[in-house]
Amino acid sequence: MPPPNDLDAFFMPFSASRQFRKTPRLLASAEGMYYKTVDGRSILDGTAGLWCVNAGHCRPEITAAIADQLGVLDYAPNLQVAHPLAFDLANRLRAMTPPNLTQAFFTNSGSESADTAMKIARAYFHARGETERTILIGRARGYHGVNYGGISAGGIPNNKEAFGPLLPDTDHLPDTHDLTRNSFSRGQPEHGIDFADHLEVLIEKYGADRIAAVMVEPVAGSTGVLVPPVGYLERLRELCTQNGILLIFDEVITGFGRLGTPFGSDYFGVTPDIMALAKGLTSATIPMGAVMVTQEIQDAFMQGPEHLIEFFHGYTYSGHPAACAAAHATIDIYERDGLLTRATKLGQQWEDGLHALADCPHVIDIRNIGLMGAVELASIDGAPVKRAFNAFRAAFDKGVLIRTTGDTIALSPPLIIRRDEIDKLFSTLRAVLHEI
Ligand SMILES: Cc1ncc(COP(=O)(O)O)c(C=O)c1O
Q1: Which of 370, 345, 346, 365 is nearest to 355 (CA)?
Q2: Which residues pair with 366 in a beta bridge?
Q3: What are the chain's domains?
């Protein structure tokens, strides 16, 4: 594919686009663990695209399923009419997710799943006549996409600052990152169950009967792989149950095998009332998300005359046929190749390889869980973010795609990664850290 002549017209998302236009990094094709640049260089994908290409790139079975579906039924709405694949997929997700999560609502992205989850929580209480229960509690350093609900419940100042008044009735738990007590933890950090106790402060502040839901990522991914301390999620679950508050897990990253179990809830043994999914659902081949809820939540909506709409929410492309076909083919691969548990098999090598970077220059923390990892770097005085960005550019020049957030390098390769590719990822990173 030839490079475009003019890079000006595309208003790029979340990019340092002026820098990009000076030294473009253009990807032309992909297969398995590798991208290929427009000038023919192979780039090892250390980030599964954006935490999403869990099955590896350009799997022929997924491509064929999408093409076949588009030849049979290119589009059908799921509003008042519907198509069978969406029901089949909902049933499949019901069987895969924790047993209490039985109903699937389809979206087109993680942001839409997060906002849909929040709307379902509020509307559930509205349907039950608890109209005062509107407060949504997120967490500092939480990422729930970029729509107004998601940035309001989310905890990333840069994502909120320029966008005017946000959603009212939102508040936040503190984040769980604690370098003083937990630096260089392997897996779940030991200290920090107390961060969950802050929910009691918010319950005291607002009254339990005003809080609709608490929404957290089981592992905060986008702000640098913040692994929940031992007992933390259990404590949140306990406080939510005690106070009639819904617990929402945003599993957009932790869903579909990232931690070595099908979902983060399986890994931690903590079950939410609502689960937001996207990314790995189709291994990112076609945009798609889903929100899983309990039977009890759906039942609350099933009132009034039967000819009336029960939930005033949905998207033109909710459960798009091509996306459903992609999801089915993706889940077939996950099941056939054992990908949803593969991270468990690779976990020790991953952890050891990552933590061996502790002696490299600039490193102030290393964190890991499943096939997720983070290397936090000391910021350059007066130029936060620059050191990690330099690492990102140097790694790309050396043929490895990493992701950076603040001054943290985040890693999350496709779940098909081989052992020698793990070694290559970390040896390249070692060279990068010595170079920058
Ligand atoms: C936990 C979480 N929620 C939501 C999103 C938003 O997903 P999308 O970019 O598909 O809207 C992301 C994206 O990284 C995410 O990590």
Answers
A1: 365
A2: 375
A3: 17-58+339-435 (3.90.1150.10), 63-337 (3.40.640.10)
pLDDT of residue 286: 98
Question: Ligand 1 centre from 215 Cα, in Å?
Answer: 13
| Residue 143 beta carbon below 6 angstroms from any ligand 1 atom | yes
* Shortest-distance atom of ligand 1 to CA 52: 14
Contacts of 252 (CB under 8 A, 6+ apart): 51, 110, 113, 114, 145, 217, 276, 277, 278, 279, 289
Atom of ligand 1 nearest to the CA of 254: 1
Tell me, in angstroms, the distance from the centre of ligand 1 to residue 256's CA.
Answer: 14
Percentage of residues in the chain having pLDDT higher than 70: 99
Amino acid at 169: D
80 CA from centroid of ligand 1 (Å): 29
**What are the pLDDT digits (tens) for 241-292?**
999 999 999 999 999 999 999 999 999 999 999 999 999 999 999 999 999 9
Which residue's CA lies nearest to atom 7 of ligand 1? 110
Q: Evaluate: CB of 144 within 6 angstroms of ligand 1.
A: yes
**C-alpha span between 134 and 149 (Å, rounded):** 12
275: tokens are 């689960």
Distance CA 21, CA 298 (A): 48
Q: So what's the pLDDT on residue 140? A: 98
